[in-house]
Amino acid sequence: MKEEITMSDERPSTDTSRSGIFMAGGFVGAFILFILRALPGFFAFVVGGLLLFFGYGILASKKVDDKFAGLVCFAAGALTILSKLPFFKHPAAWLLKAGAIALLVLAVWNGIKFVLSLRRG
After folding, report:
1. Do residues 27 and 101 make contact, with C-beta atoms less than 8 angstroms apart?
2. Of 70, 77, 96, 108, which one's alpha carbon is 20 to 30 angstroms from that of 9?
3. Digit-coded pLDDT (tens) for 1-51
4. What pTM, to 2 d.p., does this model score?
C-alpha cells in the first residue's frame, strides 16, 4: 500500500521556519552591531549616516514589519554616530553592546526552539 504524503510532512511548520529565521537574523544582527561598535571615527560617521538615511526611508513604508526594521536601522545608525561623540560615547557604546547581547540571547533561544521543533517532527 502506498502512503499518502501530506503537505505537513514535506515542509516545516510556520513556527519552525519562523524560529529558524529569527535565529539567523539574531546572529547576523548581533554580529553587525558588534562591527558597528568597533568602527573607527570617520567610518562610524559615514556608516551611521547611511543607516540613518536608509532607516528613515524604510520608516515611510506602510507595513508594520517594515516600519520596525526601519526603526531598528535608524536606531543603529544613531547609536553608531553617538558612540563616537565625546559626551555620548559610553552610553551609546553600552547600548550597542547590550543590543548585540540581547540579539545573541534571542538567537540562541530561537535556535533551541528550532531544533526542538525539528525533532518533534
Report:
1. no
2. 108
3. 566 655 555 556 777 888 888 899 889 989 999 999 898 989 999 999 999
4. 0.76
